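dumping this here so i dont lose it
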């Protein structure tokens, strides 16, 4: 054991980066052994636990479930990843980012357990997950909502047996770890299901492997479009209505629900998941929560600028659907930066019908894609690239003098692209 443990959260996060030779090392054996040493399996971390997996939509489903549950008076804790600006964003108690000190204490507990003989190596994410679970377990929570980081079956979060498990969407992403076979990806995501416990399917286009996995476990299946649904008027206008089932099997409907600013499929899924925990959903409390829910970096408008972390074709297609048409007399820009392991061609193709002009930026690090390489892919699809910059911040500086009052700018392609610009004021054309 080291003579002195790190003292601050910053020091701990730096220390975590040295613990394991690989950034991602899927598997539950190592993390489960450390969790057992920490006593995390001795008692549930909350009265009810919901785990959310999926290619896209995890963050918005978690945020909506959190807001609605708190709106009904529950004490709620959440764990999500990655963060945008502060590591503390990953763990929230009753909607508030956790303070540094509980995280420091949690990391100390993880380290003490990890270093017991025989010593166990953990990745950054695994250590962070164990710390988060320990922090949540200290809070006497009515509900914990946990977001899977990657995949499902072998993700560190899956050491917890969920009372309700949610799969939002299935699409190709993280191909180097999950492959490109959609059916196999579905199997990995469905690995969070547990025997006899509700499995919530938040999309009408999931591969059959997801439901088949639940059925094999005798887990009750609640599928969007069958067990629960949402509806608007004949033109798809909001407000919207939700129709679902209670944990006793009774039908329930909520109407006149406001637009949460996030996908309605995910909102409907979050409501069904909460209903399966036994929460009696009330009309007014749900309306108020949906009107106030916020998720930074998802269709977040800051004046002329829209920030969205979409980084795969499925997310980009939804983003293109939600974006307004290019403004009359103005241009619709995209400031885009992506990682090398993402499907840039697919993202570009999905966004292209909505974008008139592009600015490409380089992202730092081994996984960062160079701006000029991204620009070649855009021009190959007929897009107009105005400039390349060596960082998102430099891209903003290059774009600022080109902006007109009627222009809009989409910032997208990666959490890293959005995070870099959330921390600074964005120029607005006058």
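and the seq i came up w/
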């Amino acid at each position: 054991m080291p003579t002195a443990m790190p003292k601050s959260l910053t020091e701990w996060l730096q220390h975590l980066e040295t613990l394991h030779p690989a950034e991602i090392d899927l598997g539950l054996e190592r993390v489960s052994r450390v969790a057992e040493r920490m006593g995390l399996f001795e008692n549930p971390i909350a009265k009810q636990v919901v785990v959310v997996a999926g290619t896209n939509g995890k963050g918005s489903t978690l945020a909506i479930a959190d807001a609605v549950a708190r709106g009904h008076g529950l004490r709620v804790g959440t764990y999500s990843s990655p963060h945008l600006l502060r590591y503390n964003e990953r763990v929230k108690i009753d909607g508030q980012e956790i303070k540094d000190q509980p995280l420091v204490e949690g990391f100390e507990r993880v380290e003490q357990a990890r270093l017991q003989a025989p010593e166990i190596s953990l990745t950054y994410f695994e250590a962070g997950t164990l710390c988060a679970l320990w922090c949540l377990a200290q809070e006497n929570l009515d509900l914990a909502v946990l977001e899977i980081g990657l995949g499902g079956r072998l993700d560190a979060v899956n050491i917890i047996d969920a009372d309700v498990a949610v799969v939002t969407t299935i699409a190709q992403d993280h191909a180097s770890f999950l492959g490109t076979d959609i059916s196999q990806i579905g199997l990995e995501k469905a690995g969070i299901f547990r025997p006899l416990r509700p499995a919530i399917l938040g999309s009408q286009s999931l591969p059959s492997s997801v439901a088949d996995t639940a059925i094999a476990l005798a887990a009750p299946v609640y599928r969007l479009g069958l067990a629960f649904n949402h509806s608007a008027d004949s033109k798809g206008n909001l407000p919207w209505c939700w129709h679902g089932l209670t944990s006793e099997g009774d039908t329930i409907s909520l109407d006149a629900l406001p637009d949460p600013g996030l996908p309605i499929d995910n909102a409907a899924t979050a409501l069904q998941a909460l209903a399966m925990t036994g929460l009696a959903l009330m009309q007014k409390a749900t309306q108020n929560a949906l009107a106030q829910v916020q998720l930074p970096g998802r269709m977040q408008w800051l004046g002329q600028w829209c920030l969205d972390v979409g980084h795969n074709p499925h997310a980009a297609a939804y983003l293109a659907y939600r974006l307004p048409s290019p403004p009359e007399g103005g241009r619709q820009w995209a400031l885009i930066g992506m990682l090398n392991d993402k499907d840039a061609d697919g993202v570009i193709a999905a966004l292209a019908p909505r974008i008139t002009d592009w600015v490409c930026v380089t992202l730092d690090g081994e996984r960062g894609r160079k701006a000029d390489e991204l620009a070649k892919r855009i021009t190959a699809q007929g897009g107009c690239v105005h400039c390349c910059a060596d960082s998102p911040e430099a891209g903003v500086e290059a774009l600022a003098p080109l902006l007109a009052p009627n222009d809009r700018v989409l910032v997208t392609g990666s959490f890293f692209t959005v995070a870099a610009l959330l921390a600074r004021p964005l120029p607005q054309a006058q």
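The longest strand covers residues 46-53.
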